[in-house]
Known about the structure:
By secondary structure, the chain is α+β, with helices and mostly antiparallel strands. Among the domains are: 2-131, no CATH class; 268-344, no CATH class; 463-694, no CATH class. It is built from 25 helices and 16 strands. A hairpin with a 7-residue loop joins strand 15 (668-670) and strand 16 (678-684). Helix 5 runs antiparallel to helix 6 (153-165), helix 6 (153-165) crosses helix 8 and helix 7 crosses helix 8 (181-191).
Amino acid sequence: MNVSTSLNQLQPHEHQMRTVYDLDKLAELLLSVYSEGGIRAWQPIVAAANDDGSFRLIHGHRRWLALIFGAALPDWLARQKADGQPVDQVTVETGRTFLTQMVEHFDNLLSAGQALLKRYGNRPVDVVLYEGDTTDELYALLGGNFGAEAPDMLGLAIGFAGAVAAGASPAQIAARIGKPVQFVQHHLALQALPQPLQKAIATGVLPLSVAAKLQQISGDAKRAGLSAFVLANIEGDRSHLSAGDIAHLAKALDKWPGIQLPMLFDHQTQRNLARAVGRLWGQVLEAHPAATWAAAASLMHQGLHEEPWKTPAKLTAFFQLFGGDIYYDNASGQIRFEQLLAHLLPEVGCAGCPIKALPAGTTLRFDLAPAGGVMGMPCRFGEPAERCLHGFAADDSIDIRVQPIWADLPGVTATANGPRITSLADLQTAWQARAQLEAEEDAAAVAEETGAVTSNNGQPAVSQPPAGGVSADAVGASGNSDDAAAATGPIARMRAQIADFMAHHTTLAVDHPVATRCAGCQHRLAKSPTKDPEVPHCAWAGRLRTVQFLQLQPAEAGQPVIPVCRQYAPTASWAELIPAHPAPPGLPRDWLVAQTLELAQQASSRLGSDRYPFEFLTGRPMKGSESHASWFAEQLKARQGDLADAQLFTLFLWSHAQWSRERQNAALPLGKDGLQFGRYQESRWPENREGDAT
């Protein structure tokens, strides 16, 4: 049935799918309306009646707009003529210029149309009255939008959502418009996203499939969090995340339950850090769920979300994202451990702590920890404290990680994660043994420097500095016979070697993965290991031992020299020390682990007992009786789970390089990323430095 009404009685349908109009096509329709004085009879406007006497458009949204702009076009042409810019012939280009000016003035096409209705809205128009139920009406709306000009993505999402709200299924909608069901489902997913992300997808910054991946996440907070993370990685018309990245994150985040504390920990400090992480996670998740999952997505994208207490990099990243100003200092890039202890570890305290039970006021040169302060054991250094990261809660079992130099003491157990003490009795026994040993070492050092030192078997001790040692003549001779004897004795020569390496190794390529840096070594001390403050701050300088330092000289000119301390024991984890290979081949992990172990053990057996592979990873234990082949196997078993596949492949290539080195008995192929190898030859550490007296 046809009815007559006015332009201002027609309203866009609330589920209209088209939100963006092609001005060129609308200009063509405008020219037709202007030339013919109205719309063609065979292309009528179809509308449904509202209760207030107005009508909602079903078919003909563009025709309705063309009629509005067609009514205003003569007045615009008159103004152009009055302004000295007459239009001789009205063309499609004329219509486009007019529409463009309207859009620029009113911000968008629909706003321009609504503004013009105030002046031209009384113009008459004939419409075909639509009669049917709501579902049929929406189907008609959907079908009418798939004509010569397809609707935009956001318009489709709005229209499909309206049809579903009216009772239609995605399959029914797809059948009506002749599209796959997935097409409808993806657009419905788009409608559920935050508007800025909808716009990014609609404008092509990200594909439509991203909407479906995000919609598959169970839980509104997780979905909102990942959406926020995706938006944060959009810069202009470019996304720093690929569709594959987002799909992977959506799947992983959906499965991840969040921070979960395990039953067992590698040591007590790790247990306390895990407590703090778990407590902070719970607090921020309760207060800001969506923001928490957005930050979790960031950690997940970097591979830092699992067990953040296990490595410094993971821990720092966690507190940087979740700690705020309370627990993280942005200026220094450091965790505020004082605040962490005060607010996140209330159950940990000095009362009842087994460490607090040790003799007070007596600090060993090599005590349980190398220092006091918030990161050390303040009670062992006479510092006031209520708790520390090494402390214990009331029900904690005793498990204390001690310095490597404690490894041979009674009561100390060697593990892949370093020497440990697991009972109060063993702690007291080991401490007493260490105190007695230091007293004996002090006496032996005094005797040695006067020439009277003897070895453990009662024979005079003779130092045998290895190749690469520093000449004793370069160390502070004073002319006094007693001073000269002390300055040229075995322990003085050993300490001079250590001091020279510590002073000069940083001038070489310390950033290479196989370089040994004092700053990252467990044996680096905050003070002298003896009562003499001039003794190098290294655990190996405490008493007479055989030490060795080398340089890896590159075969190619222009390549850096790599410093190697044969006593090195790294403080960092394997996950921090081993770079990821840029193109891992995807070999099975079990095979890589087995081959790496076999190659390393073969290389170790060829090298002999005094040399072994991967010093920069496993370090040299302070106890000399330990088989290094077994030590590497223990380390590999304990740490390989922390490595990504690309890091494990780098370790395999390094083990092959060590194995090849021993077959040739010469050059050592080394590579920073496990791919580009250069040849290095071991050489002596320089004995004399011109103009250098140390």
